[in-house]
């Protein structure tokens, strides 16, 4: 891909995220995170009380991508949800012939973007299915692994529960971001934009639709992946970091992680550190065209795994970055 093509793709994606933010109140940061995770194909967890636009953000984001038909799948999970509701029911006719085959049309295995609401209310059978889908991008058909089409997973929850059996699933979401109420800080804007969106719905109008495409996102990812692969193919160690992650920023990255672990007892797994590096690389290319800056370290505000740590981590990382900026 030539540089002019990738520049055009970057421009379309950046224009889409900025335009989409104009239809919401104080949700630009969340839309940026959604864009980033969609580009990197990493799951994103949205946390917030009912009525804080979590579902609306995902729906409009997917409409901005121009998704149609089976490309998008959404479902609200409960403790009674069965795997057949997510990955498809058993084909009764084939079952008579002794074949345990699922009909997946219109279900998660066929979708490129998936939204699962109240994800932590799912039962153990669903949890096992989701872990396989997230970790390996596959499900089991007649006992054999089959790939899913999923590129992007968004999930939502009112709060992060403390149950230990959910720890594995929680850790798969590298970033977890709150969608908070804006009524107290932007009442006028809330009424104005809320009413406008209601009228768009009544008139079946979606001016945000088709601002960009999933193809743009996949081509962007392929380009960034290729730059990282090129660095890996070279003999010298740490080539990617030397080119795209300045020493002072990389050192600060390490210091913040160590501070969170030692002072606040925030657990950050080795897997999460690697994923964070890659997310920062993707964000830097989207926002600046290449080199990682301190701005990318702001992603560390979203690494908390427990509900009670979300505000603590956000404030701690913000304070640490402010101290560095003042030097």
Q: What does the model show?
A:
- This protein is of the alpha/beta class.
- It has 2 domains: 23-202, P-loop containing nucleotide triphosphate hydrolases (Rossmann fold), CATH 3.40.50; 234-325.
- Helix content is 50%, strand content 10%.
- It has a 5-stranded parallel sheet with strand order 2-3-6-1-7, with helices on one face.
- A hairpin with a 2-residue loop joins strand 4 and strand 5 (144-147).
- Helix 1 packs antiparallel against helix 2 and helix 1 (3-21) crosses helix 9.
- The longest helix is centred in the last third of the chain and has 20 residues, at 214-233.
- It is globular and about 70 Å long.
- The mean pLDDT is 93.
In the CATH hierarchy, what is the architecture of the largest domain at level 2? 3-Layer(aba) Sandwich
In total, the number of domains comes to 2
| CATH level-1 class of the largest domain | Alpha Beta
Helix-strand sequence: HHEHEHHEHEEEHEHHHHHH
Mean pLDDT: 93
Strand arrangement across the biggest beta sheet = 2-3-6-1-7
Largest sheet: 5 strands, parallel
Helix segment tally: 13
How many strand segments? 7
Please tell me what the overall shape is: globular
- The parts where pLDDT drops under 50 for at least 5 residues are none
**Beta fraction:** 5-15%
């Amino acid at each position: 891909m030539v540089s002019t093509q990738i520049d055009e793709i970057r421009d379309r994606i950046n224009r889409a995220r900025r335009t989409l933010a104009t239809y919401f109140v104080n949700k630009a940061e969340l839309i940026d995170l959604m864009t980033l995770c969609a580009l990197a194909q990493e799951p994103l967890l949205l946390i917030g009380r009912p009525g804080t636009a979590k579902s609306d953000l995902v729906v409009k984001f997917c409409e901005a991508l121009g998704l149609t038909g089976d490309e998008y799948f959404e479902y609200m999970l409960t403790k009674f949800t069965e795997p057949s509701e997510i990955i498809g029911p058993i084909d009764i006719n084939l079952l008579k012939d002794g074949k345990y085959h699922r009909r997946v049309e219109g279900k998660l295995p066929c979708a490129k973007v998936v939204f699962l609401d109240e994800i932590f209310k799912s039962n153990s059978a669903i949890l096992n299915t989701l872990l396989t889908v997230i970790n390996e991008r596959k499900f089991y058909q007649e006992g054999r692994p089959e790939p899913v089409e999923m590129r992007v997973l968004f999930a939502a929850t009112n709060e992060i529960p403390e149950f230990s059996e959910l720890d594995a699933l929680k850790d798969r979401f590298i970033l977890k971001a709150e969608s908070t109420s804006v009524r107290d800080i932007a009442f006028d804007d809330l009424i104005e934009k809320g009413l406008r969106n209601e009228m768009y719905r009544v008139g079946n109008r979606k001016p945000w639709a088709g601002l960009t495409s999933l193809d743009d996102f996949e081509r962007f990812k392929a380009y960034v992946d290729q730059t990282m692969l090129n660095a890996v193919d070279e003999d010298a160690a740490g080539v990617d970091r030397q080119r795209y992650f300045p020493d002072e920023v990389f050192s600060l990255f390490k210091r913040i992680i160590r501070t969170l672990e030692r002072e606040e007892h925030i657990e950050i797994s080795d897997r999460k550190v690697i994923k964070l590096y890659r997310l920062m690389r993707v964000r830097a290319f989207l926002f600046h065209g290449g080199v990682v800056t301190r701005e990318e370290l702001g992603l560390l505000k979203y690494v908390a795994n427990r509900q009670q740590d979300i505000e603590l981590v956000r404030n701690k990382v913000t304070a640490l970055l402010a101290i560095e900026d003042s030097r």
